[in-house]
Amino acid sequence: MTAPRVAIVTGASRGIGAAIARQLAADGLSVVAVARSGEALDALVAELPTDSLALACDLRERDIAPQVVAATIERFGHIHALVNNAGATPRGDFLGFSDADWDDGFALKFFGAMRLCRAAWPSLVASHGAIVNIGGIGGRTGSAEFTIGGSVNAALLNLTKALADRGVRDGVRVNAVNPGSIATERTQVRIERIAAERGIDAAQAADELARRLRVARFGTPEELANVVGFLLSERASYMQGSIVDVDGGHTRTL
């Protein structure tokens, strides 16, 4: 009997990360779900159809990534896929952000992902595995209110390209997905803020935000998870260093 493929998914306790974990488990992979919320992770893993593992930890801490990799190999013996999804960055006035805000913005989404890539790389080489980094369209198009997030995402996309270059030699596929406006808790916060500012209900505020972004609607976490599942499958075997925008047409530049 062939052992199942194994994927580490970070930021898996809710939203996009949870949808990715469900999609990969539906595709037959065992999932190592990583996030800070242990209770939410346990609930997620309990519903997955494959033998999976919840690891509650904070990837901002420098020594955690090797521990995640070691725990995965101890449980399953190998790693076939890594999805770096963890990390949220604030919107706001550039002049209002402190050094601590910038440090925190990079700590999880960039450095946490980089350290996991480094720690998992030998096992991914052995399995001819794949990495998908979840960036964001702000890394491609600058915005005055998203200076931290845009900078972090741009760095993550460049790391994707650099690791893909090494991956050609080592046999590891590395790609990235840029979500646009996905219907998650973070998007709901933006909608509620607009509703409060404009004195309108949430449905009207959602329509207004979609029009402002020039998209027909918000995407779902499941739609993005489908793309990640494809990139980790053999159907995407010739994709290397690709950056895929899943944004409803929001990004209009080349």
Order of helices and strands: EHEHEHEHEHEHHHE
- The CATH topology of the largest domain, please? Rossmann fold
How many alpha or pi helices? 8
Query: How far is the N terminus from the C terminus?
Result: 46 Å
Low-pLDDT residue intervals, each spanning 5 or more residues: none
User: Strand order of the main beta sheet, please?
Assistant: 3-2-1-4-5-6-7
Helix content: 40-55%
Main sheet overview = 7 strands, parallel
CATH class of the largest domain: Alpha Beta
Summarize this entry quickly.
Helices cover 49% and strands 14% of the residues. It has 254 residues and is of the alpha/beta class.
Molecular structure report:
The chain has a seven-stranded parallel beta sheet, with helices on both faces. The protein has two domains: 6-182 and 220-246, NAD(P)-binding Rossmann-like Domain (Rossmann fold), CATH 3.40.50.720; 183-218, no CATH class. The model has no long low-confidence stretch (mean pLDDT 95). β4 (81-84), α4 and β5 (130-134) form a beta-alpha-beta unit. It contains eight helices and seven strands. The protein has 254 residues and is an alpha/beta fold.
